[in-house]
Each structure stands twice: as C-alpha cells, then as structure tokens.
C-alpha cells in the first residue's frame, strides 16, 4: 500500500519504524473473516494510517488471502543494499477483556465533500 509521505532519512542513517499490525482473521473454512490492518510510523512520521491489507506481501503482484495460523514468524528483508537491524521489539497487543464481549462490525469510512 503506498505511503502517505516519504519520511526516509538519507542512506547510512538509522531509520526508525513503529508498526501496529492487526493480523487477518479467518473462518473455519479458510475464507477471510477480517482482513489485516496496519498503522506505520517511519522516523516518527505517520506513513500508513489503519490501512486494510488486501492479502500477503508479494513482489509486483497482488495475491489473495489464504488461511493460515494465527501466529507466524516475522521476516525482515532488504533490497540488495547494505542493511543492519537493531533494537527490534515485538509486543502482542491483546484485546482488553471488556472489549472481547463486544461484537464489532467492520465499516468502510465514508466521507462526503
């Protein structure tokens, strides 16, 4: 999904990413119940705002969702350039108990101009 703004720093400087990822949820038959969503801050700048993802990440193509386990490994990638990673934290975001009882309907945002 295209970013809202290019917030990258010059090559050779550390980049900082903060990612809030809500994994897709699947029905028992493997069909999609709720697509994945992501909010991303790059170097403290909001570049993705609660974006709905249409499927898994793929190079130059858009693949559909396929049912998978609730938790999978995280993979870090580069694009044939020197890269180093440091200070990586993964923190599960649990749904508070009082919200688990509420059935939320997914709605598309509508804006009239």
Write a brief caption for the model.
This protein is mainly beta and 113 residues long. The protein has one helix and five strands.
Could you characterize what this model shows?
The chain has one helix spanning 97-100; strands at 17-22, 25-26, 32-34, 37-42, 45-52. By secondary structure, the protein is mainly beta. It has a three-stranded antiparallel β-sheet with strand order 1-4-5, with no helix packed on it. The protein has a two-stranded antiparallel sheet with strand order 2-3. It starts with 16 loop residues before the first strand and ends in a 13-residue tail after the last helix.
SSE topology sketch:
Layout lengths: L16 E6 L2 E2 L5 E3 L2 E6 L2 E8 L44 H4 L13
Antiparallel strand pairs: 1-4, 2-3, 4-5
